[in-house]
Amino acid sequence: MGMWSIGAGALGAAALALLLANTDVFLSKPQKAALEYLQDIDLKTLEMEPRTFKAKELWEKSGAVIMAVRRPGCFLCREEAADLSSLKPKLDELGVPLYAVVKEHIRTEVKDFQPYFKGEIFLDEKKKFYGPQRRKMMFMGFIRLGVWYNFFRAWNGGFSGNLEGEGFILGGVFVVGSGKQGILLEHREKEFGDKVNLLSVLEAAKKIKPQTSEKK
């Protein structure tokens, strides 16, 4: 009876752990980013001679949709990049640019990511777009049913990837208005493959009011 009791207890504990891992109990809560925080972030171009500039240049005149990529080689990130890129014709009609930021530039990862993403990509070396409070999902992600659903969805969609680079710091998507209009949408990845709602992105982009040059 003793061994059976221990075994039953272990199974019960494992079942409880699995249940809790599939709730939001242990997920770190995202901290909303203020416009003042985002606009002061230093970004770099990915040219041979990179230029460093403040992030506010991305949205100051026309607003912007910005994807903070968790890992360019991740097939889930490539899937979301392709989804966002499907909005490019409509964003172009609105005059709203589409950008992405990555936290590292290794080997050909960004170049290999580019076919999935129809916008310019910049380097955020200090990982500020992943803050103010960086959130990580470690190995708990692999026992979450939602993550496995996302895996199969991307696989069935024909997406593939690799394991190059840091992939535990969660990413997100921002829609930022022009000038001081502010952050119109902020989606923080809850788990691997937690994609932004495309309709929400488009609706937020429609609210952007382009800055007009003042006549002197």
Output the helix-strand order: HHEEEHHEHEHEEH
How large is the share of residues in beta strands? Answer: 5-15%
Give the mean pLDDT.
Answer: 87
Distance between the termini: 90 Å
Report low-confidence residues grouped into runs of 5 or more.
7-21
What best-fitting shape do the alpha-carbon axes yield?
globular
Got a strand count? 7
Cα gyration radius (Å): 20 Å
Provide the helix percentage. 25-40%
Secondary structure layout plus pairing:
Layout: H1 2-21, H2 35-39, E1 42-44, E2 52-54, E3 64-68, H3 75-85, H4 88-94, E4 98-102, H5 109-113, E5 120-123, H6 145-156, E6 172-176, E7 183-188, H7 198-206
Parallel strand pairs: 3-4, 4-5
Antiparallel strand pairs: 1-2, 3-6, 6-7
Keywords: Antioxidant, Cytoplasm, Redox-active center
Organism: Daubentonia madagascariensis (Aye-aye)
Main location: cytoplasm
Keywords:
216 residues, 7 strands, globular
Protein model, in words:
GO terms for molecular function: antioxidant activity. Its main location: cytoplasm. Belongs to the peroxiredoxin-like PRXL2 family. PRXL2A subfamily. It comes from Daubentonia madagascariensis (Aye-aye). Pfam families: AhpC-TSA_2. The chain has 216 residues and is of the alpha/beta class. It is 32% helix and 14% strand. The protein contains 7 helices and 7 strands; from the N terminus they run ααβββααβαβαββα. It has helices spanning 2-21, 35-39, 75-85, 88-94, 109-113, 145-156, 198-206; strands at 42-44, 52-54, 64-68, 98-102, 120-123, 172-176, 183-188. The protein has a 5-stranded mixed beta sheet with strand order 5-4-3-6-7, covered by helices on one side. The protein has a two-stranded antiparallel sheet with strand order 1-2. The longest helix is centred in the first third of the chain and has 20 residues, at 2-21. The protein starts with a helix and ends in a 10-residue tail after the last helix. Residues 7-21 have low confidence and may be disordered.
